[in-house]
Amino acid sequence: MSNNIDHQSKLPKGKIMAGVILLIVGGILLIQQFNFFFFPSWLFSWPMWLIVWGLYVGAKHNFRKPIWFILIILGVGFLLDREIPGFDISGIMWPILIIAFGLWIILRRNYGDKYLGDTDQAKPNATFAEVDYTVKPNDDVPPINPNPGVPPYSPDDHLDATAIFGGVNKSIFSKNFRGGDITNIFGGTELDFTQADINGRVVIDITQVFGGTKIIVPANWHVVSDLAAVFAGVDDKRIKNPQVIKSDKILMIKGVSIFAGIEIRSY
């Protein structure tokens, strides 16, 4: 007798929360145009947008990364500097950011991702198999290979790059790359996939503000952009070579880019 275990995909709670935040902000902006209610001027100031953006980024990633906290701290600091006479943000902002980032590093090192809200969820493109639980301990158990021809999951198959006021340069060597996340805040990320390989379609989710991302891919990869860009764009600088045989390898770029750009190249 064999038991089938059905694994239902969980709802993307982070992205749902991010959508709710955008709906609330859009609703407030719409109500303001009709003068139904009075809203203070600071509610629509640019520091407030930093706070909203921090909530959006945090909700999207289930508040696992420190970027949302940094954006909110920046927004609150600039808002206080704007609204309170005599308040000087320049003297306290950097010490607060350094302390907050240090605490995050300590908590992450001592308590791990579980303490910070990162649970052991299924990895991207995870596969599940039918298992026979009636096999006796002395029986020969053949290895389970639910997806023949595809190597098992490795941490190198998933990308998580974060650049804050700095840069990240990384070469990907995984032969079974499965996607990942890139976050740039006043920083940039450069990824080299020329020695990597993918199976089918993989997704890279990019969230960046005042930053940039450069992606170098093999010539036979398809690159599809499904990115929401505000004062930003995707610049595909690949040179088409008719001798290159196209394949079913698709790299899809998703996410949000504000005052930032994405450059795609191949050699």
Automatic annotation (TrEMBL):
Highest taxon of source: Bacteria
Entry keywords, A to Z: Membrane, Transmembrane, Transmembrane helix
Keyword Plastid in record: no
Domain Cell wall-active antibiotics response LiaF-like C-terminal span(s) in chain numbering: 177-235
Domain LiaF transmembrane, residue spans: 18-110
Transmembrane segments: 12-31, 37-56, 63-80, 86-107
Alphabetized InterPro entries for the sequence: LiaF-like_C, LiaF_TM
Protein name: Cell wall-active antibiotic response 4TMS protein YvqF
Lineage of the species this protein comes from: Bacteria, Pseudomonadati, Bacteroidota, Sphingobacteriia, Sphingobacteriales
